[in-house]
Structures are given as C-alpha cells and as structure tokens.
Amino acid sequence: MEAFSFSNIVAILSLGVAIFSVGYSVRTNTKIYELTVNYRNEILAWYGQVIDKMILLRHMVKADNFNDEEKIKNLAALSSLIEKGRFFYPNVDTGDDYGKEKQLAYRGYRSIALEFLVYFYDIAKKDDAAKYSSHMYFLERHFTSFIFESLDPKEHNKKSTELVNIKYDNSKTIDGFLQEEPAMHNIFRILY
After folding, report:
1. Are 116 and 142 in contact (CB under 8 A)?
2. Same structural domain for residues 180 and 97?
3. I want to staple 89 with a disulfide (CB 3.0 to 4.6 A). Which of 59, 113, 137, 179 is the partner?
4. pLDDT tens for the chain, residues 1 to 192
C-alpha cells in the first residue's frame, strides 16, 4: 500500500475545510434568517396590537354612544404600546444634543413611526375627536405604510419562498380574478 503523498493529504484537508465551510455558511445563513424572522415577528405582533387600538379608537370616537371609561382604557393601552414601540423605533439623534437633559429613551427626536401614534393619541383623547376622524385615518395609514416599508414584506416573501416550499401568486388582482370567474361580478356589484 502506497503511503499518502503530501499532495493527497493537502487535497483531503482542503476537501474537509470546504465541507466545513459550506456547512458553517448554511448554518450561519439559517441562523441569521431565523433571527431576522423572530425580530420581524416581534414588530408585527406590536404593530398588530397598535393598529387594533387605532382602529377601535377611530370607530369609537365616531360613535355617538361610546363609553368614556372604555375610551380611557383604550387610550391608556395605546399610550403603553407607544412606550413599548421605543424599543423598536428609538429616538433619532441628529447630533444637535436635542433632549440631552432627558432620560436616555427620550433623548433626541421621536421616530416618525411613534410620531404618527402620538398625534393619533392626541386627537383621539379630544372631546370632539369625531370631527378629526379623517385625520386619525390619515395617521393610521401613514403609520401602517411606515411599518410596511421598514419590514419590506415583498422582499421578505421573496426570500422566504426561496428558503421554504411555500409558493403564492403575488401577481393576482381582483380584476384578474373576475375575468376568470365572471359570475362573481354580481357579488362585487352588490358590495360596491
């Protein structure tokens, strides 16, 4: 039996290093993806709670017979969610020392995501908030769009479909559906 030559040993070691590198890369990329998804899910859970309160408050102030105690309870919940949001969207430091005398979480300028919520809160607590429901709706939509932009669901879905075996058709619209299912036109005429 012929002894291993130096070049054979180097080749075997190179193969081992390559296999290890591929395994490490896959594991690292999987871990990064997992951490990203977990963080994203935390933001989505917070967003879900916030948007539920915003919509509830918007409809509540439009109703003539809402309960003041219920409104206060929902305003307090929204205020709490704003505070929790500081961990996802901390204040912005522009380098001008704005708020440097404040506690750490409040130094600098409030993130625009939280700014939308604070303005919404300030309107919702007004006695005549119903007059400003269109403003509340405007702030709600801008808040959603900000979170949408920061989480980039289109890119997330694209990466996810590359990693998992779940596919969806993101090119479908209601017009395309109605062309395929003309009988459904009557249902949509009733609704709209």
Report:
1. yes
2. no
3. 113
4. 455 676 767 667 676 666 766 665 666 667 777 888 889 999 999 999 999 999 999 999 988 677 889 999 999 999 999 999 999 999 999 999 999 999 999 999 999 999 999 999 999 999 999 999 999 999 999 999 999 999 988 887 777 777 676 776 667 777 777 777 777 767 766 666
Query: Helix or strand or coil: residue 110?
Result: coil
Number of domains comprising the chain: 2
Q: How far is CA 116 from CA 47, 57, 60, 112, 146, in A?
A: 13, 14, 19, 6, 10
Range of the structural domain that residue 53 is part of: 6-151
What element of type H or E holds 182?
A: none
| C-alpha span between 57 and 122 (Å, rounded) | 12
